[in-house]
Amino acid sequence: MKVATYNVNGINGRLEVLLRWLEEASPDVLCLQELKAPQEKFPIKALEGAGYGAIWQGQKSWNGVAILARGQEPHLTRKGLPGEPEDEHSRYIEAIVDGIVIGGLYLPNGNPCPGPKFDYKLRWFKRLRDYAAELLELEVPVVLVGDYNVMPTELDVYKPERWTNDALFRVEVRDAFRHLVDQGWTDALRHLHPDERIYTFWDYFRNAYARDAGLRIDHFLLSPQVASRLAKAEVEKHVRGWDHSSDHAPVWIELHDEPMMPADE
């Protein structure tokens, strides 16, 4: 089973790129972020034509998340995180696909820091951590995947000294991510590539992609019941170089049908 994530940075404006990659890679499940489209403008017909069912939560101009499943409809289980009922941002959507709970998320950027946006980011992280703990208690296969807007370590950012005071690399944010992982989640990409400098995002400015001046901010966190099935985790870096591409690249993991290691390892 191939599960992918892609911050598409405007689904209608980059639909051709998305469809091209779906045809090339054929993921079984794909979580999308930054749809930047209201609910009624989601291109469901085009995606169905490509062989994918979908659930989505749109938002005009900003945010927006979706889960696609090849050859089937994802079974919607949740829209939005518990905690702040007044929070109308479209940042979390959850479904069951082939017996796995897929939580697709787009964590707030948090800049400028300090300020209200950074405070909101930390609150959102806490809500995610609280809900993630509940998911772990279910002892079922869970994947929490998407754009976390955090570089967990210095290995995940070019020239880390330049990012010390950025909301994506502030110590409070990295601590929040570490506390989340420490609940019992496996960071899939880092687990299989422990010492590699791997990026999933390259800014449009300062020729960042050509210089490989990137960030690793798109992550897969796996519960023990699915971490034991992890076979591969890769970044489709070449897609970032396509014309009119998102500033993110697609990232994917491959899961075996059966555990490869004991669930508690």
UniProtKB/TrEMBL annotation:
<feature type="binding site">
    <location>
        <position position="7"/>
    </location>
    <ligand>
        <name>Mg(2+)</name>
    </ligand>
</feature>
<feature type="active site" description="Proton donor/acceptor">
    <location>
        <position position="147"/>
    </location>
</feature>
<dbReference type="InterPro" id="IPR005135">
    <property type="entry name" value="Endo/exonuclease/phosphatase"/>
</dbReference>
<dbReference type="GO" id="GO:0006281">
    <property type="term" value="P:DNA repair"/>
</dbReference>
<feature type="active site" description="Proton acceptor">
    <location>
        <position position="248"/>
    </location>
</feature>
<feature type="binding site">
    <location>
        <position position="147"/>
    </location>
    <ligand>
        <name>Mg(2+)</name>
    </ligand>
</feature>
<dbReference type="GO" id="GO:0003677">
    <property type="term" value="F:DNA binding"/>
</dbReference>
<keyword id="KW-0460">Magnesium</keyword>
<feature type="binding site">
    <location>
        <position position="248"/>
    </location>
    <ligand>
        <name>Mg(2+)</name>
    </ligand>
</feature>
<comment type="similarity">
    <text>Belongs to the DNA repair enzymes AP/ExoA family.</text>
</comment>
<dbReference type="InterPro" id="IPR020847">
    <property type="entry name" value="AP_endonuclease_F1_BS"/>
</dbReference>
<dbReference type="InterPro" id="IPR037493">
    <property type="entry name" value="ExoIII-like"/>
</dbReference>
<feature type="binding site">
    <location>
        <position position="34"/>
    </location>
    <ligand>
        <name>Mg(2+)</name>
    </ligand>
</feature>
<dbReference type="Pfam" id="PF03372">
    <property type="entry name" value="Exo_endo_phos"/>
</dbReference>
<keyword id="KW-0614">Plasmid</keyword>
<dbReference type="InterPro" id="IPR004808">
    <property type="entry name" value="AP_endonuc_1"/>
</dbReference>
<feature type="domain" description="Endonuclease/exonuclease/phosphatase">
    <location>
        <begin position="4"/>
        <end position="248"/>
    </location>
</feature>
<feature type="binding site">
    <location>
        <position position="247"/>
    </location>
    <ligand>
        <name>Mg(2+)</name>
    </ligand>
</feature>
<keyword id="KW-0479">Metal-binding</keyword>
<feature type="site" description="Interaction with DNA substrate">
    <location>
        <position position="248"/>
    </location>
</feature>
<keyword id="KW-0464">Manganese</keyword>
<dbReference type="InterPro" id="IPR036691">
    <property type="entry name" value="Endo/exonu/phosph_ase_sf"/>
</dbReference>
<feature type="site" description="Transition state stabilizer">
    <location>
        <position position="149"/>
    </location>
</feature>
<feature type="site" description="Important for catalytic activity">
    <location>
        <position position="218"/>
    </location>
</feature>
<dbReference type="GO" id="GO:0046872">
    <property type="term" value="F:metal ion binding"/>
</dbReference>
<feature type="binding site">
    <location>
        <position position="149"/>
    </location>
    <ligand>
        <name>Mg(2+)</name>
    </ligand>
</feature>
<dbReference type="GO" id="GO:0004519">
    <property type="term" value="F:endonuclease activity"/>
</dbReference>
<keyword id="KW-0378">Hydrolase</keyword>
<feature type="active site">
    <location>
        <position position="106"/>
    </location>
</feature>
<dbReference type="GO" id="GO:0008311">
    <property type="term" value="F:double-stranded DNA 3'-5' DNA exonuclease activity"/>
</dbReference>
<protein>
    <submittedName>
        <fullName>Exodeoxyribonuclease III</fullName>
    </submittedName>
</protein>
